[in-house]
Each structure stands twice: as C-alpha cells, then as structure tokens.
C-alpha cells in the first residue's frame, strides 16, 4: 500500500524547509559579509550602505597589510603551540580520567563523579584562579593558557559515557591475556573510541583557537599574545582610529578592510579543519551522549 502525504504534511515540510533556509542565510551572511569586505576597496566600502552581496572593487591590499604586521605571525605561532600542546594534554588527561570513572570497580566512583560534576556549576572565580596561576609561576607563560584548561568537565563526562559503551568482554579477555589498564586503554578503548576522540579534538581545538580572555588576564609580554588577542588589538585600534575621524588612506584601510582581513585570517584555518572531522562528529556525540 502506497503512503500518501497529506496536504498538512506537505505544508509542514515546505514551511520547515523555508525556515531552515532562512536560518542558514542568517548564520552564513556575517561570514560572507566579512569575506567580501576584506577584498573590497576601502573607499567604496566606507561609502556603501546596506547589504553587501559582492566585493566592491577587488583588492588584496588588506591581506598584504595584515601579513606585514609581525604580531600576526607571532600570534599564529603562539596559537599553534597552545592548540597542539593543549590538545595533547587535553586528550591524554581526559582519557585517563574518563577511563578511571568508567570502571565499575573504582572505589567511591559515584562520589568522585559527583564532585567532578559540581565543578560545572560552581567555581572559585577569576581572582582565585589568577592567584593560583601566579602562585605556581605560570603568569606571562603560554602554559597559563594550557594547564588550567587541561580537562573540561563536560568533555570528561562525554568521553566517560563513550567508554562505558564498549563491551566489558573485551576488557575481560585482555586481562586474561595479561594486559594491564594502560594496555587496555591505549590498545583497546581508544582505538574503538575514535569518533568521540574526534569530537574531543574539535571541542578542545576550537576552544583553544578562539580563547583570548585568559591570554588578556595572564599575559603581559606582547610577544606571547595568541592570534585572537592580536585580532582584538587590531579591532580596538581600528575603532579608536574611526572614533578620531581618521580620513587618510592608510587609516581608512586600517579602520575598514584591515580589520575584516584580520578576522578572515584568524577564522579560516579552524573552518578548514571542520570538514575532516565532520563525519565523526555526529556519531561521536551520539556515542558519548547515550549510555550503551
């Protein structure tokens, strides 16, 4: 018997499709605007009003000026160090914690999990955090952006739930063969949890890449600034120049196209990574969200 779609179901599908299309346009347009503005002529862009659907003129002068700024390259180097070192520490420590909490034989397992979940809702605050970081000598060091953020509670619970979905029979057979917990974790649990590992890489990586507030708090040496803090400086300088009524060509470039080019330079690399992790993202999130 053929399924017949009623008029109300068709109407719902069309309304849903139109709504999602509008939502997509609202989400994508700011990035499209920044991309077009970054390659537009500064004078034409300043005089333009309304929606921007194409570049006004075409020029890479803004990008040339961006990469002439030595702080951009330093910011890239500092950010890459924070992302790579941070991801290594994040994945290792989160995996260790998740593996321990996923073992049913762990003593006081529920109490430990309760204390860990408690940190999601309550913290000591910014001043105690700063005093702690200063007390261990991490102020004005890139490690101040890595070590305090080593384990995220939500990610820990997500990975723990994924580890619990792995059949106990695999662990039992490995122990019969003489495997210890390190062997079980690195040779059985982690290889079977690659989708959730990909999700962790994306969550932690985006967090490190976009982080600027901790850098503003803990770093005083400008040579240690990550890319997002350099971007903040450029935007603030551009806003200040605009408020002062700068009218020469160099200032116009700084206040208009330069800030858009800097945003693109800081955003595009992390956007290019997402397609390679997308196929694991939904599966990993579901594995970590549903207890098997």
TrEMBL record:
Compartment(s) where it occurs, according to its Swiss-Prot or TrEMBL record: Cell membrane
Transmembrane segments: 12-36, 80-100, 112-131, 184-206, 258-277
InterPro entries in the cross-refs: MetI-like, MetI-like_sf
Topology in membrane: Multi-pass membrane protein
Superkingdom assignment: Bacteria
Record key words, sorted: Cell membrane, Membrane, Transmembrane, Transmembrane helix, Transport
Family membership noted in the UniProt record: Belongs to the binding-protein-dependent transport system permease family.
Name recorded for this polypeptide: Sugar ABC transporter permease
Lineage of the species this protein comes from: Bacteria, Bacillati, Bacillota, Bacilli, Bacillales
